[in-house]
């Protein structure tokens, strides 16, 4: 799925990161979301690689990257710590400054990187998300139905792990189906790659810890920054008309992100949650114009 890309591993201070690298030119870091891996970029990475050096890793706990132990406060799976993994990965490759494109959970890592490491992040693109702080502050009945996994996966004491392990294949297939408007956009080869990586008990626990961090330390980090610190670089916001970001009521995704950054542009695309798979041509065109 990644012709002319290398598959490599880098050891950071805490984890081993699995990633694909291809192309030449200015560096662009692609960060995947849940319940996926770097494979989600397969349709647009080759197009980006014609003009950029593309680095597409698996986040800690996901794909083929290592699975560190967590702690009672879930900090090892915070977006701040995941962002540090990515910063160290890019520095190991010789890139001190780069663009970041993130979808879903990867988008949360990406904007946290832009806040914490403004000297490193040159441009930021976030795909079908609004900030974690906004999600929790605007959570109502309708949004809770759409993003039920935010509440389910964050439950304590191993509850979601046990329930998902009972039929992980069904759970992951159903999750992809519910968030996809174009049903054939994610081909079976890609689904099998996601299943292979995300039906392992240790990884099920890891992505639950990711969401537990989202409900605790990530929310706290956002609350500490809201209204006090802004994203310094240009920001591109893309969302699916039938995706998750469009479900947040009260204001458009662009209006929301303009509370976090001064230079914000973007648009909705005719798809569900998985923009790079459901609308790859439109997503690629928007990214190329922005980058």
Overview of this structure, please?
The protein is α/β, with parallel strands linked by helices and 291 residues long. Helix content is 42%, strand content 16%. The protein has helices spanning 45-49, 79-92, 105-116, 132-137, 141-146, 148-153, 159-166, 168-178, 188-198, 201-215, 217-225, 253-257, 275-278, 280-290, and strands spanning 6-11, 16-22, 27-31, 53-57, 98-103, 121-127, 235-240, 264-269. Strands 1-2-4-3-5-6-7-8 form an 8-stranded mixed β-sheet, sandwiched between helices. Helix 12 links the parallel strand 7 (235-240) and strand 8. The radius of gyration is 17 Å and the shape is globular. The mean pLDDT is 96.
List the helices and strands and how they pair.
Layout: E1 6-11, E2 16-22, E3 27-31, H1 45-49, E4 53-57, H2 79-92, E5 98-103, H3 105-116, E6 121-127, H4 132-137, H5 141-146, H6 148-153, H7 159-166, H8 168-178, H9 188-198, H10 201-215, H11 217-225, E7 235-240, H12 253-257, E8 264-269, H13 275-278, H14 280-290
Parallel strand pairs: 3-4, 3-5, 5-6, 6-7, 7-8
Antiparallel strand pairs: 1-2, 2-4
């Amino acid at each position: 799925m990644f012709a002319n890309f290398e598959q490599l591993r880098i050891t950071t201070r805490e984890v081993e990161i699995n990633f694909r690298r291809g192309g030449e030119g200015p560096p662009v870091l692609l960060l995947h979301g849940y319940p996926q891996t770097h494979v989600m970029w397969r349709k647009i990475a080759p197009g980006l690689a014609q003009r950029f050096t593309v680095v597409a890793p698996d986040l800690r706990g996901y794909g083929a990257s290592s699975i560190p132990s967590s702690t009672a406060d879930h900090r090892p799976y915070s977006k701040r710590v995941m962002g540090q993994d990515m910063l160290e990965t890019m520095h190991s490759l010789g890139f001190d400054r780069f663009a970041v494109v993130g979808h879903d959970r990867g988008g949360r890592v990406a904007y946290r990187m832009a806040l914490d490491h403004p000297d490193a992040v040159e441009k930021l693109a976030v795909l079908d998300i609004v900030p974690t702080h906004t999600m929790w502050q605007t959570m109502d009945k309708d949004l809770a139905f759409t993003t039920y996994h935010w509440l389910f996966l964050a439950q304590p004491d191993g509850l979601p792990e046990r329930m998902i392990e009972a039929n992980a294949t069904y759970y992951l297939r159903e999750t992809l189906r519910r968030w996809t408007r174009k049903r054939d956009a994610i081909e079976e080869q890609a689904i099998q790659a996601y299943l292979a990586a995300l039906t392992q008990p240790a990884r099920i626990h890891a992505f639950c810890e990711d969401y537990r961090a989202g409900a605790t330390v990530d929310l706290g980090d956002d609350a500490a920054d809201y209204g006090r610190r802004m994203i310094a670089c240009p920001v591109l916001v893309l969302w699916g008309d039938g995706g998750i970001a469009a479900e947040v009521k009260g204001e458009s995704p662009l209006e929301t992100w303009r509370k976090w950054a001064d230079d914000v542009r973007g648009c909705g695309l005719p798809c569900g949650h998985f923009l790079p798979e459901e609308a790859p041509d439109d997503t690629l065109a928007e990214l190329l114009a922005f980058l």
